[in-house]
Amino acid sequence: MGCKLKPQRHAGYSLIEIMISTVVAIIVLGGAFQVVIDSKQRDRESLAVSAIQDNARYAMHVLSQDLFMAGYWGCATVDAANVSNVVRTSAGGFIDFSALTGFEGESSIIDFPVDLQARAIVGNDAFIVRHADSRNAYTVREHKSPSATIKLWDKHNYAIGDTLVIAEANCRQMAIFQMSGPSNGSSEVIGHNTNTGGGNAADNCANGLKGNF
User: Fold this and answer.
1) What is the pLDDT of residues 145-181, one digit of tens each?
2) Phi-psi map region of 24: left, alpha, beta (phi>0 left; psi -120 to 50 alpha)
3) Measured between alpha carbons, how far is 97 from 146 in angstroms, rounded to an integer?
4) Cα dist. 81→73, 140, 172, 174, 175 in Å?
5) What would the mean pLDDT of 64-75 be, rounded to a whole number?
6) 171: left (phi over 0), alpha (psi -120 to 50) or beta
């Protein structure tokens, strides 16, 4: 008998099936990529919001510390002590014994202190908090009135022209002045001589501080 071979059909995908599966795969992959992109975008937005919140918390922390210290002048207070201010000018409106001074800048900043105008923006209000910085306080070892020098127990990092406050141990007298020297920095000595120079030079109108410091 002769053998008859039956034709066999080979299994496979038609062109249409391949095209459909390709389109489906593209749609699925596109959705996956979009999910990844959206996730990264949310991460970036979350980091940005977190950074803003951190900056706001730090700003509120610093501001709350300054507001808490407003009007602090060491152990002495303006109302209870005799105050001697030998600084010739108000340093652009900053030197004052008022604890808090506000300025309205809705339409103009002309009434702002001169030094503050350079940093102020029209449409924004501002205020100045004034107090002695207890973090940079030092104990006086000796005060020589004839030479207008104050000697401390420790070295300081004040610069010529810095505005300083000194108070008596009994808190009955305090004086405000600008440091006139020495110029080498990191010294135990603070000078309070008169100086009419501009820039960072001290602008004291008298050598004496009128107190037993």
Assistant:
1) 888 899 999 999 888 888 888 888 777 888 889 898 8
2) alpha
3) 27
4) 10, 18, 4, 7, 10
5) 83
6) left
Going by C-beta distance under 8 Å and a sequence separation of 6 or more, which residues neighbour residue 99? 70, 71, 129, 130, 131
d(C-alpha 65, C-alpha 195), whole Å: 33
Tokens of 9: 């059909």
The structure's pTM equals 0.62
Structure tokens at 74: 């060491």
